[in-house]
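Researcher: Batch entry, complex prediction.
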Amino acid sequence: MTTKAFQDYYPDNYSHCYGCGRLNENGMHIKSYWDGEDGICRFTPAVHQSGGFPGNIYGGLIASLIDCHCAGTAAAAKHRHDGFELGGKPIPRFVTASLKVDYLKPTPAGVELEVRAKIIEIKNRKVVLSATVTADGVVTAKGETVMVQIAENN
Amino acid sequence: MTTKAFQDYYPDNYSHCYGCGRLNENGMHIKSYWDGEDGICRFTPAVHQSGGFPGNIYGGLIASLIDCHCAGTAAAAKHRHDGFELGGKPIPRFVTASLKVDYLKPTPAGVELEVRAKIIEIKNRKVVLSATVTADGVVTAKGETVMVQIAENN
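Model: Structure tokens for the complex:
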């Protein structure tokens, strides 16, 4: 892992996301890093981010983690694909075209979750990724996302 | 619309969801109602629930709205399908098996969003729904969900 996360290299004006923006003071500050060829994110939900039953995490948070982490990994992957290293110019900003989450098991509260994103395809402005959410060594959710690079950020 | 929302009829022990649980003091309290044959939810996001660019809403909130609203609509639909009216025994509790969101346009901040769910199929313990998110009369996202009734809540 590097010290700075992918999201720390977003341009300032696109860094306000409640999920992952470093400039959103009320946000969750989801952070993504390289782990070999995968993007990896570790996140421990707050107690109040529970599902209907208190011992589990609510589905919207699982979706948010996959969404923000895949957007960040798409940006870092495209940046690298275009021949740039992290730390030079800001990385591009991607938005979500589609997000699919399969909830396989309840995701337990009170543990650090690992979200792992794999790059399936980089094609022009589009990056397709798959993702898993793991808690205590068990995959509790799987995701598929299609991310698209925004035009303002060539 | 009725005065009490679908989520107000959940059993107490399944009412802690950060998205829609009436007993989660820190939660968003997403509320769903009948509008004819559709489930309808109106929600005005907080300013800090922005996307990367401050004028829009973050994708995870859109996913959360569709998720919680479809779970509530599935529960109310199954309750009605089984011959019960709202206000008698608690409605069943559904969990999400899968959630798909297509983000068609940015969803603007500062306006009330309408989330509309349509019931596609009720089959045993499974309810399939589609959903739209509308802002200022424009559909900004579409969703598809598969909801499954939990066993503890027959």
